[in-house]
Amino acid sequence: MTIFIEIFQRAVLTAISLLFGCTGEIITEKSGNLNLGVPGVMCVGGISGFSGALMYEYFWGGADNPNAFLAIVIPLLFCLLGSLLMGLIYSFLTITLRANQNVTGLSLTIFGSGVSNFLGGFLVKQVSPGAETANISVKVSTKYYMAKLPFSDSLGWFGDMFLSYGFLAYVAILIAVLTALFIRRTRPGLNLRAVGENPATADAAGVNVTKYKYIATCVGCMISGLGGLFYVMNNSSGVWANDVVEPLGWLAIALVIFTVWKPHFAIPGAIIFGGLSVLPEHLPKFVTIPMDAKPLIKMLPYAVTVIVLIFNSLRKKRETQPPEALGLSYFREDR
Amino acid sequence: MQNIPAIRFENITKRFGNKVVANKHVTMDIQKGEIMALLGENGSGKTTLMNMLSGIYRQDEGVIYINGEEAHINSPRDAYDLGVGMIHQHFKLVDVFTAIENIALGMDKKESGGTKEITEKVKAICDKYGFDVDPKKKVYNMTVSEKQTLEIVKTLFRGANMLILDEPTAVLTPQETDKLFAVMRNMKADGKSIIIITHKLNEVLAISDRVAILRKGEYIGTVLTAEASVQSLTDMMVGEKVELDIERPDLEYKEKKLSVSHLSCRDKYGVTVLDDVSFDAYGGEILGIAGISGSGQKQLLEAIAGLQKTEKGSSIIYYDNSNHVETELTGLSVSEIKKMGVTLAFVPEDRLGMGLVGSMGMTGNMMLRSYKMGHSPFTDRNTPRDLAVKVKDELEVVTPGIATPVRKLSGGNVQKVLVGREIALEPSVMMAAYAVRGLDINTSYTIYRLLNDQKKKGTAVIYVGEDLDVLLALCDRILVLCDGKVNGIVDGRTATKEEVGLMMTHLADDASAVPHESAQEQSDASVQDAQAETIQETKEEGEK
Question: Do A201 and B80 touch (CB under 8 A)?
Answer without folding.
Answer: no
